[in-house]
Amino acid sequence: MLLRQFLMEWRLYSRDRVAMFWTFAFPMLMLLGFGTIFRSGAAPAFTVVVSSDTRASQAGRDLLGALQRTPLKLLELSPQAADARWKKGETATQLAPAAGGFALKVNTYLAAQGQMAAQIVQQANLAVQIRSAGAEPHWLPVQLESPGSAHASNYAAFLLPGLLGLNLLSMGLFSVGMVNVSYREKGKFRRLGITPLPKWVFLMGQILHRLTVSFLQAALMLLLGRFAFGIANQGSYLLLAAVMALGTGCFMAMGFALAGFAQTSEGYAALSNVFFFPMTFLSGVYFTLDSAPRWMQQSVIVLPLAPFLKALRAVFNDGAGLAGHGAGLAIVAAWTAGCFLVALKRFKWA
Amino acid sequence: MTGPALRVRGIRKTYPKVVAVAGLDLEVQRGEVFGLLGPNGAGKTTTLEMIEGLTVPDAGTIELLGLQWQSDGRAIRSRIGVQLQGTSLFNKITPREALTLYGSYYPRRRPAAELLELVQLTDKADAYHVTLSGGQMQRLALALALVNDPELVFLDEPTTGLDPQARRGLWDVVRKMKGEGRTVILTTHYMDEAEVLCDRLAIIDHGQLLTEGTPMGLIQSLAIPSVVELTFDGTPPDPAAFQARLGQEVASRGDFWEIPTQDPKALLPGLLEAAEAAAVPFVQIHVRRATLEDVFLHLTGRSLRD
To answer: Model ipTM?
Structure first.
């Protein structure tokens, strides 16, 4: 009976080609896209707009020569064109002659990347000054090295566990929570309620289906990481599976729990976003949180995705055990248990 | 196979803001087609939901086929068939699959092909549910209600939204069910449907039983076998003055007046004379037999579809 229910879930799911395609393809495209952009490990290239009258003086030509050797992308425009571009707000950093030399303008609106680029221009300018004094600038050696693993690591290796976690989160909140709210809203549960089928069989069929979907999804991601970026799991597969299982349980329980608080699909969409967006952007899916304000780091750690990802990366990227992740995993486990209890209390069939 | 198919005693259901059902008794014999009528908000759906085991009553007892929900839920579920209003299925399931899937939940089932034939969906058997028309979905819902070869069938407004031809097709299916010895309990908005299909009817309003009996018996109990209708072109004038002149009840409804009478032959000459004298601007006159609709109006003061 349960098997039939499970197979039916798969059969109906496989007919919704669009949903299926995006469930599997989206995280893979994310990995391919971001993994490729940041593949070299170099900082992303920033653009600096250079007013063409910089070239008028020898000092300006020397500075431009030094800038050619930085990773900056230079866009040389006539003073009028540069000014027009600046006014449109498209320029992050602009270099132009000024009284007694040159000056930089940084757009407040794009301050993060603008200041980064300005720093690099400053360095090039210092190098020119040192050379004009007859000396050669002395650069500190930089070595690209990944902290934990024996193998070369890259951004894709950081991103992959993040996307695995994101998959679990969206599976729980949307494939489980949203779907059950809409089943209730559309009366599918009522229709089941008049048959002798025990409802747990229906729910178990659904849960097993989601489990196999996330398992397949994870397997595909690992394969893609392996063949496109040469990323391999550094730790034990058993530990990896254990962490993934805990995360799956946690986010699925969260979906069931939230489903008990919304009457309609629209209500659920709003409610789930309250959880989805902070977790997506502040839990270290795409970047580390080291530079975030301290209060933010501390408040995000109480949500389960951040500690889950830390543990997952420890195993996957560093080949480490779970020692030191006890507190984090306890947070995840607490969420799991809490959500499970709330779901038991609040989940409604009709 | 003894005892009634359904016996309901004193069921009540109160929601925070409204008393949905305020103590209701019903009894339906095996093999009967029983109609539950009432205006919107009368408590029909809540009553059906309690009987079907979807809602737990606050008080009262419900016995289906001699069984009670508290002790024999699964046994009841496997022996009754329910067509819910607006049955919702998965979008991409086909009628054949739906019948097979839901059939698999029951110990006893009828073959999908036979049910598809019964509701004339054979040529749509493998089309996705989303592609069916409203009438086809309704017929599929009916087939689903019969998937377990039930002894007792509940149909909640089975013909709402169907075109006249599809309604008649559905009536045939209901008659066939009766012919097979099943008990059918249905709700409907259509008085003609209730008159044609039902052996017995109960009319409820404000969560209470107003009356019950055979359609013929209910009409006769009104003691007004006929109704004279005067139709107007537009809004009819206020009938109060005319009522006084005629010495007979005149009710204004929509674009016509209604005058109930026991003897239309005796009423008509006087009526026409009075209308002439008062210059009542009616355009047509029409005499008809009283119907269930009149019973309904008389009892609830409302038309069924209000």
So the answer is: 0.78
Contacts of B144 in chain A (CB under 8 A): 191
Residue numbers in chain B where pLDDT is lower than 70? 1, 87, 302-306
Which residues in chain A touch residue B103, judged by CB atoms under 8 angstroms apart?
Answer: none
Q: For chain B, which domains are there?
A: 6-219 (3.40.50.300), 223-289 (3.30.70.270)
3-state secondary structure of B151: coil
Q: 3-state DSSP helix/strand/coil percent for chain B, to nearest 5?
A: 35, 25, 35
DSSP 8-state class, residue B9: E
Q: What is the pTM of this model?
A: 0.76
Please give the domain boundaries of chain A with CATH numbers for all domains. 2-38+151-346 (no CATH), 47-132 (3.40.50)
The residue of chain A nearest to residue B98, with distances taken between CA atoms, is A8
Q: Which residues, 6 or more positions from A7, have their beta carbon under 8 angstroms from its beta carbon?
A: none
Give the nearest chain B residue to A184 (CA atoms). Answer: B88
Residue from A347, A172, A177, A182 nearest A249 by CA: A172
* B87 in contact with chain A, both atoms CB, cutoff 8 A: yes
Q: Do A194 and B53 touch (CB under 8 A)?
A: yes
Integer Cα distance of B219 and A27 in angstroms: 68
Q: A-contacting residues of B 23-82, CB under 8 Å?
A: 52-54, 74, 77-78, 80, 82
Quick check: B105 and A15 CB within 8 A?
Answer: no
As averages over each run of 10 residues, the pLDDT of chain A (350 residues) reads 87 85 86 77 74 89 89 89 90 89 89 87 91 87 66 74 92 90 87 86 89 90 88 87 92 92 91 88 79 78 88 86 86 93 82
pLDDT tens-digit map of A101-110:
899 999 988 8
Contact with chain B for residue A186, Cβ under 8 A: yes
Per the structure block, which two tokens stand in for B30?
């095996």
CB of A4 less than 8 A from some CB of B: yes
Q: What is the pLDDT of residues B255-283, one digit of tens each?
A: 888 888 888 888 888 888 888 888 888 88
Eight-class DSSP state of A174: I
Does B143 reach chain A within 8 Å, measured CB to CB? Answer: no
> Does A191 contact B88 at a Cβ distance shorter than 8 Å?
yes
